[in-house]
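User: Show me sequence and structure for the first protein, then do the same for the second.

Assistant: Starting with the first protein.
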Amino acid sequence: MSDDASEDDVRRDLPSASIVKAKYRADGAPEFDAADFKEMEARARGPDVLTPQEMAIVLEAKEEGNAKFKAGRVEEACQKYNCALQTYANRPGGTPDQRREKSKLYANRAECLLRLEQWLAAEQAASKAIQLDADNVKAHYRPCARTRGTWRR
């Protein structure tokens, strides 16, 4: 960094998600709360790991999707599962728990797509769920249910 560059120029060059705002005590020492440390720890584990805040967004969207699905609002449920999956973006999820959660979201999405009779999209969603977690029984069942004629609304 050159001496001419201002602090604002440096901040603009850094990805905004990687900056944790420090709070300062009266003596000028930085102070972080527990959420800041969890976010920094997640970022240190790699770019594929979701931060606690991102996981909270995922879980909230999943719960909303589950509630809409139970209420019979399948299209809205599918949208909520899609929102949760968008939080992952292109990241697989850096921990086994995060990969399992992403697999569940894809399996739930597959069920919604089956009910909407979008067969190919349902099969693709189930395949993604299986790639993330081969032990996800629902993900294995959903594409087979339509093929074998056992799927029912």
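Switching to the second protein now.
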Amino acid sequence: MFKVGFVFFCLAMFLLNGCGMQNKKENAESPYRNVKNTVSGKKQQNQVELVENSPTIGTDIMEAKKVVRSIPGYIPDSVWINGNQMWVVVRANKDLSNHAKLKEAARIHEKLVQAIPQFKINVKVN
């Protein structure tokens, strides 16, 4: 009786140990170290811990502001991201006509697309 129980216990340990193994190569390529799901009340919050050098939304926003600052006469007013769309509002140092605003928005848009191609970028000049 003891031997059968011991064999069953060892077999169960081998099965459980084999199911817990993950592909190390898969983990090495993933930008995430640890994903935790916590439930508070009815709301579920996903907390994702990123690896140190992984790009974030903040780095994309900072890059867009840097591109706008590099264009003389323009200051980034606000930049936000919603999914794959980036919205950039730019303030001009001088008054422009509506036609000139559209022309300058197109020029700024072109520079932003060259710097950050992964977003559909919308530019508004105030």
